[in-house]
Amino acid sequence: MSTAGPGSVPIPRRTLRGTSRRTALTVDVLLTAAAALEVLTWYGHHDMTSALVCPPALLALLVRRRFPVPVLLATLPSMATGDLWLAPMIALFTVASGSARRAAVIGSTAAVFGAALWSGYAVDSGSLGWGDHLFAVEVALMFSVGPAGLGLLARTRSRLRSRLADLTASESHGRRLEAERAVAQERARMAREMHDTVSYHLGIIAAQSGALWATATDEVIREDADTIRRHSADAMAELRTIVGVLRRSSGRTDDDSPGLERLRTLVREARLDAGLDLVLPPAACSPAVERAAYRTVQEALTNVRKHAPGAPVTVTVRPTPQGDTLLVEIRNGPAPDAVRPVVPDATTGGYGLTGLKERTALVNGTFRAGGTPEGGFVVRSEIPLAPAPARGTTPQRASAPGVSDARSYTDTCRRLDAV
Fold first, then answer.
1. Quick one: how far is CA 229 from the chain centroid?
2. Is 416 inside a domain boundary?
């Protein structure tokens, strides 16, 4: 495949070849027509020899790209008779521009020079002076060395253009590698910061909740302490997974990501007045879709717990009637007047819904969130149901020759956003 640039539609090479061939054929037909016009200017002055050598020379120009040297040899008689000069010059240009062998170019130039010189002497067979000899040589040099020089110039220009394209591709590849190296360094820095700060506090929470569970006599307190301890352990496990993703350049594996089957446990442990309407898709969907649905429910329940504690919540996760989209909706009513939010609004970051919108966009879904007429709030995501990849298979990715197998800068940034 060939592309014109980022974001462009790939153009098949077969289409490019077909277009190039049609263009080359059009140019060859126009050059043949121009050479035929030269023959027509001498209409009425041709003899039997001209009739024998000019038509083959004109027809040979149509295949000059495939057989440059034979075409040149076929056009030389027309120049030697003085009836057709343009065809040998075009053939010589083709040899000089397409052949990398110096001997072939020199020999072809000498052949055209000889044919042109022969034509100059054949026109006037009488006595010639030194000036006439010099003029004949000059004309022969002009009609032989000129096309050869233009052909060599065209071949040099083509090689320089190809070299420039290689240098441009190499420079672009170097910039991409440098960007990926910078992203990798930033990932490592983020992994260190998360490991050194978040894991420390989660470890303290897990240790103290475990001690509280072991020493408390009240069953309610013991149950609460056990819940805190398990949530801390789960958070530590997910933190280690994220840190591992940031440190690995090969990307994230979705084998251990939370799935739809864990939604019942999530809603139960939220300890809210929540009802769950869960209908699993008929076929296994991709881990990215399940992870996006799980995180949407998790973040929405967290927001209800912080901003509307005690409000009734309805969680709906089911495929649409068409079966091609997964509907995720979390709807809560207004909070009781006697209950105040657990976390004041001034301490919230405000990035939860923004992160959900970005996460949903990564799986080509749509996200909406807003208040309801009853004074509650609703979070709604519609995620296309992508099929799960077969086990043991990895997606194939086409790569151009000379391009590293490392992920591009854009792909790396998307994976960072997904985390």
1. 45
2. no
Helical H segments across 216-279, by residue range? 219-247, 263-269
Distance, C-alpha 159 to centroid of its chain = 27
Q: Please check whether residues 26 and 136 belong to one and the same domain.
A: yes
How would you list the strands of the sheet with 274-278, edge to edge? 274-278, 313-319, 325-332, 377-384, 366-371
The amino acid at residue 163 is: R
User: What is the helix (H) or strand (E) element at residue 206, kind and residue range?
Assistant: helix 130-215
What pLDDT digit, counting tens, does each position of 186-234 carry? Answer: 877 777 777 767 766 777 787 788 888 888 888 888 888 888 888 887 7
**Residue burial 108-126, b: 16+ Cβ < 10 Å; e: rest:** bbebbbebbbbbbeeeeee
Q: With respect to residue 181, please indicate whether it lies within any of the assigned structural domains.
A: no
Amino acid symbol at 205: I
Q: pTM for the complete prediction?
A: 0.46
Same domain as 262, residue 167: no
pLDDT digits (tens, 9 = 90+) for 122-170: 655 556 667 777 878 888 888 888 899 999 999 999 999 999 999 999 9
225 falls within a domain: no
Half-sphere exposure of 347 (CA within 13 A, CB side): 7
